[in-house]
Design a protein that fits this description.
The protein is mostly helical. The chain folds into two domains: about 220 residues, 3-Layer(aba) Sandwich (Rossmann fold), CATH 3.40.50; about 60 residues, Histone, subunit A. The protein is built from 13 helices and five strands. The strands form two sheets. The protein has a three-stranded parallel sheet with strand order 2-1-3, with helices on both faces. It has a two-stranded parallel ribbon with strand order 4-5. Helix 4 packs across helix 7.
């Protein structure tokens, strides 16, 4: 179950899990964090209909789960479900996590914390510098990574420096794909205008319903405001409001704008996969749920 943020993947995953006695495996890179509830749009336990969810709340907010680590954990969960005869339903919009799970990751050098700190500091001083560096050493990677996506830019520069060759070359090496499963990819693609309206409304609602208070509690617990978890949509703007960097109205507007931009990037990423069965609506729509149910029934019967 894939698609941009705010398209109702959780609702559709619940519907299918209930129909087929399945269990849900989270593929959202923010819902993995404990304590990040409102800004991650995590379903509260009472709303999960008693259906087990895997890989939610698996790391403290000061930690991090790489795509490789996620893939290992998710594959273990999938094999456990298969052993028990339970249908796994993977749901989320983290494209890199999903790629790592299904296709595997290229062999690559481990992260270099000191290099990452230097690159992060450089980006803070000169936001365009990372993309300039990558264009110089690996034009192919620079062409596919947005200049504002500092996380991916840092990883590409890191790979290029540590491997001694372009990240695009390292990432093209053979990958260990997921084995032992037939895979049905269902994507949600509601009309763009409706999605943008829904995303704007959701962002405003998060701030109204306690995102500032939740973020303040995280900071008061000792979480570094620069932690990866607090650099995600909503939390980043909440931190900037609490630090006096943004008025509340500007924080909400910025969250709305960045969320719409993120959804557009997600769709571009997922559109590159020709195996996705796209459904033109939200996962909470009854007609979409019926279409997904028919797709899944036909796939499982084959």
């Amino acid at each position: 179950m894939l698609g941009p943020t705010g398209t109702g993947k959780s609702a559709l995953a619940l519907h299918l899990a209930q129909a087929f006695d399945g269990e849900i495996v989270n593929c959202d890179s923010v819902q993995i964090y404990r304590g990040l509830e409102i800004g991650s749009a995590k379903l509260p336990p009472p709303d999960r209909r008693g259906i087990p969810h895997h890989l939610l709340d698996i790391v403290e907010p000061g930690g991090e789960v790489t795509a490789g680590a996620y893939a290992s954990l998710a594959r273990a969960a999938l094999h456990d479900l298969k052993t028990r005869g339970v249908l796994p339903i993977v749901a989320g919009g983290a494209g890199l996590y999903l790629r790592a799970l299904l296709a595997g990751l290229s062999p690559a050098p481990p992260r270099d914390p000191q290099l990452r700190l230097r690159l992060t500091a450089l980006a803070a001083r000169r936001p365009a510098a990372l993309h300039w560096l990558l264009r110089r050493y690996d034009p192919a990677s620079a062409a596919r990574i947005h200049e504002n996506d500092h996380q991916k830019l840092i990883r590409a520069i890191e790979l290029t420096r540590l491997a001694g060759e372009p990240a695009s070359r390292v990432q093209s090496l053979p990958r260990p794909a997921l084995a032992g499963f037939r895979i049905l990819r269902i994507g949600l693609d509601p009309p763009r205008r409706l999605l943008q309206e829904a995303l704007d409304a959701r962002a405003a609602e998060m701030f109204r319903c306690g995102l500032i208070e939740e973020t303040r509690a995280l900071l008061d617990s000792g979480i570094d405001p620069r932690a990866k978890s607090l650099q995600t949509l909503g939390y980043k703007q909440a931190v900037e409001f609490l630090n006096g960097q943004l008025p509340l109205a500007d924080a909400v507007r910025q969250c709305q704008t960045r969320t719409r931009q993120y959804a557009k990037r997600q769709m571009t990423w997922f559109r590159a996969d020709p195996a996705v069965h796209w459904l033109s609506g939200f996962g909470s729509d009854l007609a979409i749920q019926e279409q997904a149910l028919l797709l899944a029934s036909s796939f499982l019967a084959a």
